């Protein structure tokens, strides 16, 4: 017998996936393609943003149908998981050591497009269902870190005025990107 919690999780997952699939993919694809910067750098598939921006409308419809199919079938093309990695020199000149380089991963443009559409859908679903707390500032449009800092400052100021202790925890991940 299955665990009833697992069954409930599966039901809720399928409901969420159906909600996410209800949007008009063709309109979304056109919108996100128009927002792409016309860069000529390309990933493992050798397709650049510039190439995607100049494709005929029929291709956009085909791409939207593919996105819809993959979403319904819970698939993600394996070739989109490959990245072309380039290391950039952090120094202005000279031969860098390993810790003086910064890698960048160039993903397939189609993959980035699909991820942007999914991000918009998930963000909309999370915001409309109040899944993200108001206090969350990072990774949300229109919610800036300075706003959160001012909020913390105001909370501390209010607590000092009311003679209430304030607990704060600060974490600084030095060179977090280099260690990932």
UniProtKB/TrEMBL annotation:
InterPro entries: RdDP_mobile_element (IPR052560). It comes from the Eukaryota. PANTHER family: ENDO/EXONUCLEASE/PHOSPHATASE DOMAIN-CONTAINING PROTEIN, ENDONUCLEASE_EXONUCLEASE_PHOSPHATASE DOMAIN-CONTAINING PROTEIN. This is Reverse transcriptase domain-containing protein. It comes from Rotaria magnacalcarata.
